[in-house]
Amino acid sequence: MVFFRLSPVPGSGLVLLCLVLGAVSSYSLELNLTNSEKNICLYAKWQMNFRIRYETTSKNYKFVTISDLANATYNGSICGDDQNGPKIVVQFGSVFSWVVNFTKDVSTYSIDIISFSYDTSDNTTFPDAKEKGIFTVYNPVAFGIPLNDIFRCSSMSTLEKNDVVQYYWDVHVQAFVQNGTVSTKEFLCDKDKTSTTAVPTVHTTVPSTTMPTPKEKPEVGSYSVNNGNGTCLLATMGLQLNITQEKLKNVLLTLTSTFLFLLQWVWPWASL
Length: 272
Ligand SMILES: *[C@@H]1O[C@H](CO)[C@@H](O)[C@H](O)[C@H]1NC(C)=O
Ligand SMILES: *[C@@H]1O[C@H](CO)[C@@H](O)[C@H](O)[C@H]1NC(C)=O
Ligand SMILES: *[C@@H]1O[C@H](CO)[C@@H](O)[C@H](O)[C@H]1NC(C)=O
Ligand SMILES: *[C@@H]1O[C@H](CO)[C@@H](O)[C@H](O)[C@H]1NC(C)=O
Ligand SMILES: *[C@@H]1O[C@H](CO)[C@@H](O)[C@H](O)[C@H]1NC(C)=O
Ligand SMILES: *[C@@H]1O[C@H](CO)[C@@H](O)[C@H](O)[C@H]1NC(C)=O
Ligand SMILES: *[C@@H]1O[C@H](CO)[C@@H](O)[C@H](O)[C@H]1NC(C)=O
Ligand SMILES: *[C@@H]1O[C@H](CO)[C@@H](O)[C@H](O)[C@H]1NC(C)=O
Prior knowledge:
One of its GO terms (cellular component) is lysosomal membrane. The structure is a single chain. The longest helix has 10 residues. By secondary structure, the chain is mainly beta. Helix 1 crosses helix 4. Strands 1, 2, 3, 4, 9, 10, 11, 12, 13 and 14 form a 10-stranded mixed β-sheet that branches. The site of one 2-acetamido-2-deoxy-beta-D-glucopyranose (NAG) has 5 residues, from loops.
């Protein structure tokens, strides 16, 4: 059984950006999975969004940002059994699905693999896509957490693979919950440990075995922030800043994380 809740979250950069442009779209996903004895086996609450690059028929690249998960469903999410660990399956729209599964060891449990699929044959989300079909990216995370601890990471984590960048923040998750009681003992991600202030730092990279993607050059193209059935930002960017990566990094580091987050949407290459 799946119990879930969606709450609009004020305060994230994207919300700010969309507020400015007249639409709100950031949701915190929350779910409790329960086993046959109606005990909670897995608790998760998190925020995420995605930036997808695709090639158009006119050989340009377009970017789509998926951030409105308001109508997310959790079909397929299971507590698992002795053979298979638990997994969270999230569908949003008819175009996207997201799966994370967990494994257990003697004293730890791990977030195993995050996979994300999108269907470019949906021509409202991916207008003029050159290649139509379902694409899936797998991000092995293999991140271990002590059993009976709840993992928390308020900081931003980024996963990059092929044409997809995934952003995660405000993450709380505990799999293999014992006796149906979600732990109060938190296991923090490194980025949360080092940030002494409450200001979340941007761009933690979750340890992963993925190949580092080569630094992208600034790309000219259209960028849109998709809020589900509409678009709250659409801009064509043809601007190249004459600033070195290093300088840019220093400049960025002095900015607040919210603004940084906002920047990513305006200048997606600025974060690389
Ligand atoms: C999930 O369970 C926790 C702990 O029992 C509770 O605080 C929370 O409200 C529940 N959330 C949902 C969406 O049912
Ligand atoms: C999820 O399951 C419910 C009930 O079984 C069904 O009505 C709904 O269509 C399913 N949604 C998806 C996206 O599969
Ligand atoms: C997790 O899912 C991936 C593919 O989605 C699969 O290859 C892997 O075996 C799964 N791991 C577990 C522990 O179920
Ligand atoms: C989108 O796809 C549908 C069905 O494949 C087609 O009928 C429609 O003309 C397409 N729309 C655009 C704008 O290409
Ligand atoms: C779960 O319950 C068992 C038996 O009541 C107890 O021995 C164990 O310590 C409990 N585990 C946790 C994590 O509370
Ligand atoms: C969410 O679902 C409701 C009811 O099915 C629908 O009216 C609404 O347009 C959907 N919103 C989004 C953003 O897909
Ligand atoms: C999505 O569309 C539905 C129906 O047209 C509308 O009621 C809803 O407000 C829209 N949601 C957003 C976020 O624009
Ligand atoms: C960028 O700036 C450097 C020095 O600040 C200058 O040498 C170079 O010509 C500039 N490049 C462009 C494309 O304007």
